[in-house]
């Protein structure tokens, strides 16, 4: 390296950095972690980055850090197992030489260590679709591997000066800037115009719900004299679904369960804050709303299915308060719409398990169960002080019902065996009168059981379990149940179709496939920009127009002939003073006749 510097063999500073990292890698590769030279090299690498980063940044580069993503979690290919192959785990891999084969189109197939060794035969049947004919592959074609391969971050080159940047450092997305990346140095030195990023959360259509939550949070921050980045809240998905009852629950509660299930509307709510000029998603929540048309017992109830956070909100002093404001604001919104109850589950995340955001910051501690329960109680106490909630108490989750039913069914199967099978050898030697008494007791138990409702045993078991865990589940009373139910308020927000945000699994899979991590503020900025760009791109297929004033989606709109991407709805267009430029009225050329028929039929009722 010294010789190359003296002879001027390095064409750019990054080549020198590459040689430095090669030296560090060789030390770490050929020495164990417990050795002194290994630890000294770690300290030297840290000192190297701290020393050279300011030099590189002064030369127009981003940094000298060598960023890499953790190994992805793979899914075992064994049929109906779905085991996870996590970071550092051993597994067996088969590289497919013919991806064109029927039902074997992937390039690689992986089996976890346990599943592979549990198969006793000399071959394994593999396929993309388990319902179709599987392909037989000899086990000796599978190679042993460890899931420890780090994937380096993508680098992008400036199209003007050819300086190389990390894509995450550059905050460059090809979907937003298809012409290529231009570094800040070239923008400044050559006075080059850079297209503004229009794929922001604030440019997504606002709804009544998002506007109410956003106003509440920003008012709270303003009252606290907090002038950090403004918070933007958007409903990213809103659609109607059907909740189908599990078969075992339906069998036990046949008279109390609707045959067709329970219709509800699901909504995905995200909160963003602008930090250092870039939007960062810091809060996500999925909710289910069962309105007055839903059959009992789900009528007029909402379920906060899941919410997740990353600790990037500024200032940190009000981070927890902002979370509370969003949740209380949502409870207030559904209360105004006539909902009677809200349900919430206070369960902390499991280690290395993501709810909504992919890879949380390592310094973000996982709350213990008791701490999270107290956090929820504090939020609900505030809701009661503001008269949003009347009271709250414990509840329980439906999967426990299924597990309890399964246990009861197993007990019923065991009880079908003759009574003598349950008696020990000593009892078999007892007198005949005692045997007759046992049989008589058995007959009485069966008679009593036949006269009891089928759900009596189930209820007693569930109530017993609920008593132990009721602190983790909350039923929030929004209106007085004794008083007359308030009139239902129709949901004025139009459905928002977005497959990416439909479920948390869809969003997590998308984030995992594209390495959209929230493990650091640096990566959270890029990940937020990337998934917002994907949402905006999905809406271009069915273009919609949002008013630049009220942010509401509008059909008939007025478009400015001079400003770039400036539209007003009919209501805002008529507000004085009017826009300074000429505006042209535009009416959508595509009319959804079915939707109009629905509106007319509703108005005629």
Automatic annotation (TrEMBL):
Predominant subcellular localization, coarse grouping: nucleus
Keyword Nucleus among UniProt keywords: yes
Gene3D superfamilies in the cross-refs: 2.10.110.40, 3.30.60.90, Bromodomain-like (1.20.920.10), Zinc/RING finger domain, C3HC4 (zinc finger) (3.30.40.10)
Protein name: histone acetyltransferase
One example GO MF annotation: transcription coactivator activity
UniProt-annotated location(s): Nucleus
UniProt source species: Rotaria magnacalcarata
InterPro entries from the UniProt entry: Bromodomain, Bromodomain-like_sf, CBP_P300_HAT, Histone_AcTrfase_Rtt109/CBP, PHD_P300, RING_CBP-p300, RING_CBP-p300_sf, Znf_RING/FYVE/PHD
Source organism, top-level taxon: Eukaryota
Entry keyword annotation includes Manganese: no
CBP/p300-type HAT domain segment(s): 198-540
GO BP terms in the entry: positive regulation of transcription by RNA polymerase II
Enzyme Commission identifier(s): 2.3.1.48
Swiss-Prot/TrEMBL catalytic activity: L-lysyl-[protein] + acetyl-CoA = N(6)-acetyl-L-lysyl-[protein] + CoA + H(+)
Cellular component terms per the entry's GO annotation: histone acetyltransferase complex; nucleus; transcription regulator complex
Keyword entries, A-Z: Bromodomain, Chromatin regulator, Metal-binding, Nucleus, Transcription, Transcription regulation, Transferase, Zinc, Zinc-finger
